[in-house]
Amino acid sequence: MEEAVNKKELIKKLRQDILAMQGFRAVLDHDRRDTGLGPLEHAFPNETFPVAAVHEFISPTVADAAATTGFMAGLMGHLMQQDGTCLWVGTERQLFPPGLKAFGLDPDRIIFVDLRWDRDVLWAVEEALKCEKLTVVVAELKEINLTESRRLQLAVEKSRVTGFLHRRNPRKIDNIACVSRWQITPIASNLQYGLPGVGYPCWNVDLQKVRNGKPGKWQLQWSAGQFNHLIPATVDKQKIFIPQAV
Amino acid sequence: MSRRYLTIWFRHLTADQLAIRRPELKGKPFVLAAAERGRMVVKACSGAASAKGIEPGMVVADTRAIFPNVEVLDDNPLRAEKLLRALAEWCLRYTPVVAIDLPDGLILDISGCAHLWGGESPYLKEIQTRLRSAGYEVRAAVADTVGSSWAISRFGQISPITPPGMHADAILQLPPAALRLESGVLARLQKLGLYRIASFINMPRTALRRRFGTDLLARLDQALGTAPEQIDPVQPVVPFQERLPCLEPIRTATGIEIALRHLLETLCQRMFREGKGLRKSLFRGYRIDGEVQQIEIGTNQPVRNIEHLFKLFQLKISTIRPALGIELFILEAPVVEDLSVQQESLWAVSNQEHTAIAGLLDRIAGRFGIAAIHRYLPDEHYWPERSIREASCLQEKPAIAWPDDQPRPVCLLPKPERIQVTSPIPDYPPMLFIYKDQIHKIRKADGPERIEREWWIEQGLVRDYYRVEDEQGARYWVFRSGRYDDHEPEWFIHGFFA
Q1: How far apart are CA A217 and CA A44, in angstroms?
Q2: Which of B374, B412, B471 is opposite residue A96, by nearest beta carbon?
Q3: Which residues in chain A (60-79) have CB-CB distances under 8 A to chain B?
Q4: Residue B418 domain flag
Q5: CA A75, A163, A168, A141 torsion-angle sign
Q6: Pairing relation of β-strands A180-187 and A54-59?
Q7: B398 and A199 in contact by Cβ < 8 A?
C-alpha cells in the first residue's frame, strides 16, 4: 500500500519534471493570471493558461478571422489588465481599433506594426517576443514552418511573453512548435424571448491541440465583459446550425 | 552694434548658370521660356538678349520679332531656387548667416565679418570678383538694413557701400520700385507722379496708408530700419555635431565602431548636460579619396543612451565602404528634442519598461522604416474612417474616452465593398446579400444606425449601417448608401463583427 502511494508521488513528480523540461515552469502565484476562460482552463497543463507560450489560431475565412480577433482580444484584455502593452504585427491588417473596446481592451495600448512580407513579420515578432516588457505579441501571417515557430517558442520561454500566431487562410496546417492550436468559428448568437436584433458574440472554440493537455470543444459567449460558457443544450434547442471544425 | 547687410543681385541667374554649363551659349542671346496659358512666355534671358531689349515676361513670338535669331530653351521653374541655395551655401565662407531672396538674390548678414577681409570694400570686391569670374553677372550693395541694401543693389547709381547710418539718405533718389512693392501700388505711384522715394517719404503716414495700403509703410520702415526684418538663414547652424579626425586612415569595421562609440560618448554627454535627446542622427565618414560615406538612424522618442544608439548604428555599419581609409568621422544630430531626466510614464508602466519598448520599436523602424509603426487614438468623428487618428508619439494619451456606446466591428475593410442585396421593404435590413459570389441569408439584424457624412469635410451620401448575422452565425456590418427615396440604393459591406 505504502509502495503504491510512493509510486503515485513519484509519477506526479516525474510529470512535473517533464513539464519543466518542456518549458512549463512550476506555476507560481504571479504566473497564474486570470484569463476568464473558466472551465476551459482545465484543458491546460497545471490547469493554467500557459502564459509564456505561443498559441496558434487558424482562420480559414474572413468571418472566422473576425471571430478569432474577438476571442484573442478578450484573452488579451485579461492578460494585459491595467498596465500591459501589446504589439500587433501583421500584413494587410484589417483590425479596426475601436472595435476592441467592447472586449475590455484599450486600443491605444496596442502598437501596430504593418509589414509587407511574412518573413518581415517573423523577424519583427521574434524581436518583440524577446522584449520582456511587452505582455502580448500578436502576429498575423499566412505561413510558418516548424523551424520558424521553434525560434519563437524558444524566445518566449526566456522572456515569458505571450505570443498569438493568427494564421489567416493558411495553405496547409502542419505541425508547428506551438503550445496550442485553436480554431474559433462564429456561431449564431442567442437572444432570449425571441427579441429582435443581434445578440452577444458567440463562438465555437475548438482547442485542437494542446501540449500535455486535453483538447476539446466549447461554446463561449462574450457578454458583460467576460467569457461565459454556453450550455450546449440551450443552443441545440434553438436548432442553430453549428459549423463543424475542419 | 549696428547690423550690416550685403545683398547680391544675380541679374541673369538661370541664364548665366546655363551658359556656365554649356560654354557654347556664352555671350549669345538666348531666352528660357515656359508655356503659360497656351503661349510661350520668357522666364529669363541672357545678358546679350537683354541688351537687345528682351525682358522676362514677354511672349516668345514678340522676342522673335525683335530679334529673329534668339535661341529659345526650356525653363525649369525649380532651377532658380536650387541654384540660389547652392550659391548661398557657397557664401557661407563669408558669413554664417546667408538667406536666399527669391527669385534672384541673396541676403548676407555681414555684421562683424568684413574686417577679416580688410574692410567692407575689399570684402565686397572679393565676393563680386569671384562670382563674376565664375560667370555670373552680379550687383551687390552693403547697407544697414536689408531693404536699403536691396534697393541700392538693384537701383543704386552712386556707391555700392553705404556708410553706417547713411542708408536713409542713400535711398531718397531711388525709384519706388526699389522698395519691393507690388505692381499695383507702383502703378498708382507712377500715375501720381511720385517717381522718387524722396517725393513721398515725408508725406503724412495716414495719407500714405489710406492711398497705398499698409504694405508701402511696412516696406518703407524696413528700408529705413525702424521696423525689423527677419531673414531666414539658409543653413541652420547644426548645434549637435562632433568631429573625430584620425591620424591614420581607418579601414576596419572595428575601427569604425571605436570611432562611433567615441563620438557617441561625447555627443551624449553634451545632450545630457543640456537635457536633450536625439530623434535623428547622421554618421559620416570622409574618405581619403574625397568620397563621403554616410549612415542615418531615426528613433521613436528622444534618446541619449549610448548603448541603444550604438546598436541602431551597428545594424548599418556594414554598409560603410572604407576603401582606402576614412580620415574624418562626423556625428551629427540634426533633430533633437527635450528629454527630461525623469521620463513621464507611459500607460502607467514604469520608466524602464517604456525604454525597453521604445528600443524595440527603434529596431523595427530602423529595419522597415518609421511608417510601419502605428498607434491610434480616438478622434471626435462618428464617420468610421475618421473615428481614429494616429498618435504622434508613444506617450500621447487619448484626449477622449474610446466610445463604446455603439457596436463597432473588430475588422474593417480598407474600403467598403459593393454587395448585392435583396431587401423586402425600404428602410429594412436586407434578407440576403451576395458577397464574393457567396450568398449569405440573414437571420438576425440590428439597425439602422445612421451616420451622416460630415459636410464641412466632404460632400456625399449618408450611410445607414446594419449589423446582420447570417445563417452560419457570422456577423457583418453592412450599410446602405444614401437615403432610400433620393437614390437607387447601393449596399456595401464594411466590416466584420467578432
Answers
A1: 13
A2: B412
A3: 61-63, 65-67, 69-71, 73
A4: yes
A5: positive
A6: parallel
A7: no
Query: Does CATH place domain A33-237 in 1.10.3720.10?
Result: no
pLDDT in tens, B83-142: 888 888 888 888 888 888 878 889 999 888 888 888 889 999 999 999 999 888 899 999
B417–chain A Cβ distance below 8 A for any pair: no
Residues 147-176 of A with CB under 8 A from B: none
As a whole number of angstroms, the distance between CA A114 and CA A66 comes to 18
Q: Does residue B131 sit within a domain?
A: yes
* B231 and B260 part of one domain: no
Give yes or no for B472 touching A (CB within 8 A).
yes
* pLDDT tens digit sequence for B51-78: 888 888 888 888 888 888 888 888 888 8
Of B357, B468, B475, the CB nearest to A85: B357
Q: How many domains does chain B have?
A: 3
Torsion from C-alpha of B25, B31, B34, B39, nearest 10 degrees: -140
Pairing between strand B71-74 and B30-36? Answer: parallel
ipTM over 0.90: no
Residue B350: its pLDDT value, please?
42
CA distance B302 to chain A (A): 18
B370 touches chain A (CB under 8 A): no
A100-153 pLDDT, tens digit each: 988 888 888 899 999 998 889 999 999 999 988 888 999 999 888 899 999 998
Same domain membership, residue B186 and residue B327: no
B140 shares its domain with B268 = no
